[in-house]
Amino acid sequence: MKRGSVSFLFVLLIATVTSVLCFRDGMLPNGDFERGPKPSDMKGTQVINKKALPSWELSGFVEYIKSGQKQGDMLLVVPAGKFAVRLGNEASIKQRLNVTKGMYYSLTFSAARTCAQDERLNISVAPDSGVIPIQTVYSSNGWDLYAWAFQAESDVAEIVIHNPGEEEDPACGPLIDGVAIKALYPPRPTNKNILKNGGFEEGPYVLPNATTGVLIPPFIEDDHSPLPAWMIESLKAIKYVDVEHFSVPQGRRAVELVAGKESAIAQVARTIIGKTYVLSFAVGDANNACQGSMIVEAFAGKDTLKVPYESRGKGGFKRASMRFVAVSNRTRVMFYSTFYAMRSDDFSSLCGPVIDDVKLLSVRKP
Ligand SMILES: *[C@@H]1O[C@H](CO)[C@@H](O)[C@H](O)[C@H]1NC(C)=O
Ligand SMILES: *[C@@H]1O[C@H](CO)[C@@H](O)[C@H](O)[C@H]1NC(C)=O
Ligand SMILES: *[C@@H]1O[C@H](CO)[C@@H](O)[C@H](O)[C@H]1NC(C)=O
Ligand SMILES: *[C@@H]1O[C@H](CO)[C@@H](O)[C@H](O)[C@H]1NC(C)=O
């Protein structure tokens, strides 16, 4: 090998090592807001200097909230550490992060609404943006984790979390905490599965202390899914559950269908017209006190299968499969839960059946 190509390889190696070193999955710098502004940069709870919050730049009415602080007769509880921020009308927080151009990333953050109105967040990394509704509360303490994904257009991502709301009370507006990021590696189909990411192993970052799972909201206008290869084709979110806090049929991750027919997940697979295929999957419960008779409806093109599952809410699963003949060169595989369910230990939290290990294979005719 020539000297030139050796030093070229060396440069390439250094470049790879540095790009790996400067990015780590996990909490953003001061993503849990534990490092706060100096008292001189605050007026009551309001932060009055836009550079006062370490690692972040603020705009508009931003409050720095300590866990246990009272608002009216509501006690504010903070999920990660002791502090969080609240975004008033048209307020935003932003942070610049070194990333790799072209790569896909998923952001995970905790949000809680504080007033009765519908609250929304616009999360963006130009030119991508998504508006996340946070009016439906899925967990009892009011905080939920949300995921959103983007593709990096350059080596620096400017992450902006913005409250587009126009409430009468300027102090109304969502609380934000625990902002984390994860690089996504789009999975490929294999000779064991025509579907990609069928076990849901690749997906958004789950904060280590988060016991609620991560909501993946529907993004009708968005082609970058925090759950690579899958689309949330519904009005409401689905929930991403981890083996550390839930019962998962296979591997480390699965999906909980938390909002009945309003919570559907889909993927389009390439198929050959006239060929016979088998769609197989696991249906279970997440061991989260979600009890009762459940039904998961599976769709493959024009064929459907209803899979009943009796949940005792203590974990467990069964397997199901359907055979169909492809009538198109693209077959839509979709799942939803027929019914709504509520946790038996907490009647304000929506829950539902879990699906996992989704496989699609072509078979010979019997
Ligand atoms: C997670 O929980 C552990 C143990 O309770 C605690 O020490 C740690 O600070 C928590 N981490 C966060 C980010 O809240
Ligand atoms: C981001 O990249 C710039 C330019 O390469 C560098 O100066 C800066 O130190 C990096 N920041 C971090 C946090 O790695
Ligand atoms: C969300 O924010 C982005 C970036 O500022 C903006 O381009 C987009 O129009 C906003 N979306 C809505 C619905 O406000
Ligand atoms: C798949 O079907 C569509 C419409 O039926 C057609 O336009 C397209 O050419 C087909 N693609 C292949 C690879 O056969």
From TrEMBL:
Annotated PANTHER family: OS02G0205200 PROTEIN, OS02G0527500 PROTEIN-RELATED
Naturally occurring in which organism (per UniProt): Eutrema salsugineum
Taxonomic classification: Eukaryota, Viridiplantae, Streptophyta, Embryophyta, Tracheophyta
InterPro entries named in the record: DGR2-like_dom, Galactose-bd-like_sf, Pectin_Meth_Modulator
Gene Ontology biological-process entries: positive regulation of seed germination; regulation of cell wall pectin metabolic process
The keyword Secreted belongs to this UniProt entry's keyword annotation: yes
SUPFAM superfamilies: Galactose-binding domain-like
Protein's recorded name: DUF642 domain-containing protein
Keyword match Nucleus: no
N-terminal signal peptide: 1-22
Keywords per UniProt: Cell wall, Glycoprotein, Secreted, Signal
